[in-house]
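Checked the freezer inventory, then went back to the computational side. Two predictions to log before the end of the day. The first one is the construct we discussed on Monday; recording sequence and tokens without edits.
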Amino acid sequence: MSGLLEQMKKRRSIRKFKPDMVPQEIIDRIIEAGLYAANGRGGQNTIIIQVTNRKLRDEISEMNRKIGGWDDGVDPFYGAPAMLIVLAKKDWPTHVYDGSLVMGNLMLAAHELGIGSCWIHRAKEEFETKWGRDLLKSLGIEEEYEGIGHCAIGYVKGEYPQAAERKENRVFYVR
């Protein structure tokens, strides 16, 4: 392999980000990787919303905080200056799996490009609210989509985390 397996083994979820914005050219490359994720029957029924606008980013963070039940002032996005929100068509039978593969590609591509990332949940709940549906409409998205996840991205603040030892007895062989 061309180092892909090593990159997969080293990628970790980042929970401390610098405030510096990731250049658009790098974000575009991360998004491109997401668009090439495997998907059910080649349907390509996922979409990605890039959020780099600080006001909207903070509004989404606050909505996410409330859904998560955390105290005021908690940032569920760990200070990441940008996020890529993955949604998938609700009526597509493999929508959750397809969106999850997009999220995986986004995180691996970010790591390869020297950018930290973390999958943040509660996108499903966010986009089930009137606020979430209105946000989609404001972007011209009229079809029914389910939020799969937020990929928080930014430059890593502090030491890069190391992988934990892998647990034993997780593979079973039938020959």
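The second is the one RB wanted added to the comparison set:
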Amino acid sequence: MSLLAGVILKLIKCCAVVVSSLLLTACGNDNDDTAYSSVSFSVSDAPVDSADNVVIAFDQLEFIQADGTRIIVAVDEDTAGHNYQQIDLLDYPGSNSALILTDQVLPVGDYKELIIHIEANKALSYVNDSNGTNELKQPSNKLKLGSFTIKDETVQSFTIEFDLRQSLVMRGNIGNNNGYILKPHGVTIIDNDTAASLKGTVDSNLFAVPPCVNDTGNYVYLYEGHNLDSTTLVDNFDADDDEFNNILPVSGSSVPYASTSVDLSTGDYAFGFLPSGNYTVAFTCSAVGDDPVQFDALTIPDPTSQLQKVTLLDSQEVIHNFNL
């Protein structure tokens, strides 16, 4: 199908679902000179250590333009014909991703917010962990994310990257589990045209450097910037969370951009869909129980020599291995 034909078909869909009367007017205006682009959206994740499955039923995507205009579109039907996409995020780590919206024609320009609408049927979204199946709750069935820009191009693809070690939070505790929630903290929208990636292996001898235990706590953390003081690299926390205990690291500390687990059988780790720029990557064997809300004062890096400066360029894959 040509882009022009796609525009015509997608604009019909647009007119049917747009909330804003402004865009409804534009859809019916023969003299409208708005530029459009065909965009697709996928989802991916950085794995979380506390769960075996993180299943979300994606229902709709809501696009809010800079002027407040809202456009709501349904995600692609699944192979069974359901009008939602039920996806286990843990099936798509690193540079793997699942497509949820294909070739949607949208106006070119800046968008101040993307809102993910979750299917209202609560049974379709859940987390499996060592204690069984838990409800995955989402206030108002919505997850509000940040800004992005649609350029004047024929086709543009984006990935919604979930760093589950930051965004997935249990409310309550193991003995009094009130279910999990997903927060926008740690969820980013990445333009695939410029997305970089970082991967490598960790020497298995680093897994059990005393006092670390061989099969627990092995993670790689990523920080923005170069020439960072290794004594100021801290673990995940969210000072904006309602349940934050107000215990902060020292002023000037560097917070993680992302973190990911190390495969104990292969030593592999991977970060996919990263913005280009300068980063510092650090391995630690002592990151057991990194709470996504509270500052835990974990030792990063551990051993202290296990950090390295890396520079990621647009669409580039960088490999860094950690060796004892």
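For RB: Residues 1-29 have pLDDT under 50 and may be disordered. The first strand starts at residue 36 and ends at 46. Let me know if you want it refolded.
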